[in-house]
Design a protein that fits this description.
membrane, elongated, 2 strands, about 160 residues, mainly alpha
Length: about 160
């Protein structure tokens, strides 16, 4: 009977280690893409607020977005954030079309893919499960409303 307690505690420890590995993998993947995501958000805010400045420097903004897209594609991440990366790449494509063609209809696609990416990330993290197993999340979200469009800043930091 004493070995049953040992077996149960071993299973619990194994589960905690596996859950910790899962969330550490997601956090490390997000840290690899954090700078790219922040740069996308800065550019999208400029597109929403200062369209006249964007018109002057279209080529520069498109080049920046292409570099960001290549950086996200080439970042070595686990299979866990594959869908999130795809949504970010699609949102960058929509932002490039918005800048190059001066059409706001692509801005709605950008918002759609950004929201889908955020939903995918929320699904991976599953806040309820995280709040039960660990201390409160250090994820900060700042939202700014401009012209009825939403720009979301996402910061993931890990305590190492």
């Amino acid at each position: 009977m004493k070995y049953v307690g040992l077996l149960v505690s071993s299973i619990c420890v194994t589960l905690v280690v596996l859950v910790n590995f899962y969330y550490n993998s997601i956090t490390l993947d997000m840290q690899k893409m954090e700078d790219y995501v922040m740069e996308i958000n800065i550019i999208s805010e400029e597109v929403i607020k200062n369209s006249s400045e964007i018109d002057k420097n279209k080529k520069e903004y498109v080049d920046r977005l292409v570099k960001i897209k290549d950086g996200i594609k080439s970042s070595k991440t686990s299979f866990l954030v594959c869908d999130y990366k795809e949504y970010k790449i699609k949102s960058i494509d929509s932002l490039i079309k918005t800048i190059s063609k001066n059409e706001d209809k692509y801005l709605n696609d950008f918002n759609l893919y950004s929201k889908l990416g955020d939903d995918e990330l929320e699904g991976l993290i599953n806040k309820k499960f995280v709040s039960i197993l660990s201390r409160p999340s250090n994820r900060q979200v700042r939202t700014q409303q401009a012209k009825g469009l939403e720009v979301t800043y996402l910061f993931n930091k890990a305590y190492i």
